[in-house]
Amino acid sequence: MGLAKPEPAMLRICTVLGMACLLMLTGCSSTPSNPRYAEPAAKPFVPARLSRDQANDVTIHAVGLVGTPYRHGGNTPEGGFDCSGLIRYVYKTGAGVMAPRTVSMLADWGQAVPAEALQTGDLVVFTLGGSASHAGIYVGEGRFVHAPSTGGEVRLDQLASRYWSRQQVAFRRP
Description:
Blueprint: H1 8-26, H2 52-64, E1 75-76, E2 80-81, H3 83-95, H4 103-106, E3 111-113, E4 123-128, E5 131-140, E6 143-146, E7 155-158, E8 168-173
Antiparallel strand pairs: 1-2, 3-8, 4-5, 4-8, 5-6, 6-7
């Protein structure tokens, strides 16, 4: 007799619990190998409207949505997400803050952050040809959560990956 296929809800719960454990354990991990995204002990101060607890809640909410289907214009877990819909939903549910709904507005939201000051809950905004084209939420250790494309799902990616490291990127702190 084969094993039963797990229900999607159970998979999501397992994913959330696994990622929560991973986030707790990374506090004891070694320094990331890519110094561009290393989180040094003394970071430049960049003001934020979110408390550290709110930023952590945003991070946990974002990671918990990994695996949700992509849908252009989507803004709910049930209906799917596009990148800006994901960000708006996560900031609203995780911190009670209403983020702008378009990537072009997200590109100017909050304060600019240098890479060496990047913290969980910050925005990652990619530009193409001078215009903001994609965005995600930084979750630590050089990783970000985003809703990348039609037919895909919300996923966790490395900023230092072959594809993303070649993109022009800016960081914003709401």
